[in-house]
Structures are given as C-alpha cells and as structure tokens.
Amino acid sequence: MKTRMRLFYPLLIALVLAAVTFAYAAANTVPASSAGDGSNTISGYTVSNVHYVLDTTNPSVISAVEFTLSGANTPQTVKIQLVNGGDWYSCTLSLSTYSCNVGGAVSAYDAAYLRVVAAQ
Length: 120
Hints:
Keywords: Signal. Residues 1-25 form the signal peptide. The protein starts with a helix and ends with a strand. It has a domain at 46-119. Helices cover 21% and strands 38% of the residues. By secondary structure, it is of the alpha+beta class.
C-alpha cells in the first residue's frame, strides 16, 4: 500500500500542475491577425502601340514614350529604361495609354532598346 501511495501523490501533483498550466494558457488572449504563405505564376504584360515622342525644339532627343499594356491586371507601377544601365523613367496611365516623360534626357541615337517594368 505504501508503494501505491508513493506513486499516487507525485501523479496527483503532476495532474494538478498540468490543469493549472492549461487554465493559465487558456486565459491568454491574442488579437486577430492575418498571415499566409503561397505562390502564384507571374504573368507578363504585352507592350504594344509604342510611340516615341521627339522633342519639338530638338528632334534628335526623345521627350516621351507612349504605349499600351495588356494583361490580366492593371499595374500600379510602370517604368521604362531606354539605355542599358541608364536612368529609369516613371510612367502614368491616361485612359488606356501609358506615358513616360523622358524630358529630352535621351538622344534618339543612344536609345538602344525599350525596357518596360510593370508591377501591381
């Protein structure tokens, strides 16, 4: 009987401690929040109707670039680059055409390509 009592009291103490710990943890409140993890395919945009606007006083420089983008969503940020490693120019949407003011900073000779970056 003494050996049963020796096992009973430690087991009883462990159960009481577990119940108190559970009750304390259940009393904690955590504010609602959101978290997530996932992946999705990055779909591209199709650039079309590209129009280079030459400066009216010096037609050897580009003053703006205009084009349309088609894709699943309307991008929030659109920028272009006309010279490899050169400056990036922000674009704005008006109706369905994006217009990027270059301000005559790029000569028509130096504009080697049109790089368009668009993101939601």
